[in-house]
C-alpha cells in the first residue's frame, strides 16, 4: 500500500515459508481458544456489548508495556484481577505465539526498515532507562500486544489513537472462517477491502487510518494478534525520559519540551520520512545489516 508520494505505508504479507509456520498458526489458534475458555469460565473477562466497546464484542487480553493514566514513566499494563494476569502470562509463554509475534516484528522491519530502526533506538532507550521492564517477547520490537480471543473478533471501524500517530501496528488473524466471504480488513479512508486469511500479517499505521473487519458467519470462529507501541513512550523518551508535566515545572524544562515537540507539520513530516519508497527501499534495508 503506497501513498501518492510513493511511500510504502502498509501491506499484507503471507507468513514465513520456513518449516513449521502452519503448525505455529494452528497452535496459536489453540492457545487463544484455551485463553478465551479460561477467561469466560473464571469471569476474568466477559463479552462486552457492541455499544460499550468501540472495537467490537470479543474477549481482548492486552499485555505489555505502555504509558498513560497518569503514569510517571512507562510500565506494564496492570490488571487488578489476578486471573487476568495469569492468562496473559500463559499466552506469553506459548512458543508458537512467540513465533507469530516475532514474524510480525520481522515483517515490520522488512516493510519499513528506517521506521524499525527508529523504534529500535527509542524502545532501546526506554529499556536502558528502566531495566526492570520485561518485554513480551525477545524477538519483537513491539512493546505491547492485544490477544483478541473471539469468539468472533470482528472489529468495528476505529482508530488506535493511543498508538504512535505515524507508526505501524501488526495484525494477524487466526481461527476458522471463510476469508473469501468475511473477516476482510477494511481500510476505510483508503477505500480498500482486503481478503485477510488466517496466518497472514498486516502492517498498517493504525492510529492514522480508520480500519475494521467485515462480519463472518455465525458458526465461524475468528481471533487475532495485534502488536503496537504507545505514542506516549516515544514522547517520554523525547523528553529525556521525563513526563511533560515534570518539564513544565522549570523554565529550562519548558524550553526542552518545546524543542522536543517541534511543530506539528515538522513532526508529521519526520514520521512520514521514516517510510521507504519503492525506489529507496532496497537501500534502506542496509540500515538493518
TrEMBL record:
It comes from the Eukaryota. Gene3D superfamilies: 3.60.130.30. This is 2OGFeDO JBP1/TET oxygenase domain-containing protein. It comes from Coprinellus micaceus.
